[in-house]
Design goal:
By secondary structure, the protein is α+β, with helices and mostly antiparallel strands. The chain has a domain of 95 residues: START domain (Alpha-D-Glucose-1,6-Bisphosphate, Chain A, domain 4, 2-Layer Sandwich). The protein contains 3 helices and 7 strands, in the order E-H-E-E-E-E-E-E-H-H. A 7-stranded antiparallel beta sheet has the order 1-7-6-5-4-3-2, covered by helices on one side. The longest helix has 20 residues. The two termini are 24 Å apart.
Length: 152
């Protein structure tokens, strides 16, 4: 199992940062390799990714979501991965975004990529683009303030 943990401070209030993160369909605007995300309902998304010329589709379930605190998910088919993003108020105008992703690399190319830190650099670049995206907009593209409790 591979793992990446990254954090970045964003010069935007926590509510605005969280609200933007809940707009999954906007992810292709700042995440390399994400072609499209379709929000199916409050708990389910469908992803289309293309990394290194390899296109993949998979479904993911939001396993826990609390406004201004966290969004956690896991894949339900296809590529095995799970993650959590937490939001931390540093000040009234600054938010720390912490991303943790775990996945199972498949095939030689993904295993070598994970071993030499390609995924680590990719996630780092994605969170930097998210920072630029939300700071340059001045406002979020939408919001979902619902709560998804952890089951079980």
């Amino acid at each position: 199992m591979a793992n990446v943990e990254k954090s970045i401070d964003v010069d935007v209030p926590i509510r605005q940062v969280y609200d933007q993160w809940t707009q999954f369909e906007s992810f292709p605007q700042f995440m390399n390799g994400v072609e499209r995300i379709t929000q199916l309902d409050d708990r389910h998304t469908h992803w289309v990714t293309k990394v290194g010329g390899v296109e993949r589709e998979f479904d993911a379930e939001i396993t826990e979501q609390h406004p201004d605190e966290r969004v956690a998910w896991k894949s339900t088919d296809g590529k095995s991965h799970a993650g959590v993003v937490t939001f931390h108020k540093i000040s009234d105008t600054t938010t720390r975004v912490m991303v943790q992703i775990d996945w199972e690399p498949e095939g030689v190319v993904e295993k070598v990529g994970a071993a030499v830190g390609v995924d680590d650099r990719q996630i780092s670049a994605d969170v930097k683009r998210f920072k630029e995206f939300i700071e340059s907009r001045g406002t979020e593209t939408g919001a979902w303030r619902g709560d998804v409790p952890r089951e079980g």
